[in-house]
Amino acid sequence: MDRPVVALENADAVYDYYLSHQQNRRVARLAYGALAGRFRPRVHYGVGARERLRSLIYDDSRLIVAVNHVSDTDPYTVAAAAWSSALRPVIGRTRVLAKDELFVETEPGRTRGRAIAERTSQRRRIDMMGGIPVFRGKDHGLRAAARAGNLMMDVCAERLRRGDDLALFPEGTCNGGDPTVLQHVGSGIGHIVARARAKGVDPTLVVMGLHYGPPPGRYRGASVHIDVPDLTLPEKPITIARTVAEYLQVAVELSVSEY
């Protein structure tokens, strides 16, 4: 299947494609390893979290990794942290939610030259990392993005059923305020969990706190705190989102203290 143009009006074709798209796992591992060498995150764990992660992965359990969103470089820091942590075995079979503009291959009015090469390269990098596009309400309007959002959540749930894991930034946008205080977490992550459960999958929550140091921050050597809360997520999507926010805030605070 040809790669579709990632545009809101093309949402059906976009999510049909990303329902089945699979990157080359060997290439993904090499790329994640290269990012680890470049960004050099310092990974810390909650008590027993590394051992529990290893056990969950060995048992082929499904994971949802929730990460706070501080910078546009966060996806690369998360990739580097995955390589440098107990999450390394799931590289290549983890879907990563990313804003749709990262998948755009050409700029309006540009038909050749370096701009196209850079955009095409970016799209391929995002696809290689396991990206699934998200059409955000803040970019397209809540009504316009609502149907695409439902398609995206269905794709996420189905990918979990098929054996993939999922990583996402549940705040939905970069934190322009105090990076030590989590922004509002919407109900999207709760709806994904609920839809996965309807398909017979009960994913385990993994929280990952990122901290780059005092402003303006250094993107190399970020403090990363990973934990696997010992809990069963609630039933209602909004309550799931609140629970995720609670545990992710703790991970953020620990990443700050461990910087």
Automatic annotation (TrEMBL):
Domain Phospholipid/glycerol acyltransferase: 63-213
Record keywords: Acyltransferase, Transferase
Record-given protein name: 1-acyl-sn-glycerol-3-phosphate acyltransferase
Taxonomic source organism: Rhodococcoides kroppenstedtii
GO MF entries: acyltransferase activity
Lineage: Bacteria, Bacillati, Actinomycetota, Actinomycetes, Mycobacteriales
Highest taxon above the source species: Bacteria
SMART domains attached to this UniProt entry: PlsC (SM00563)
Bilayer-crossing regions: none
Keyword Transferase included in the entry's annotation: yes
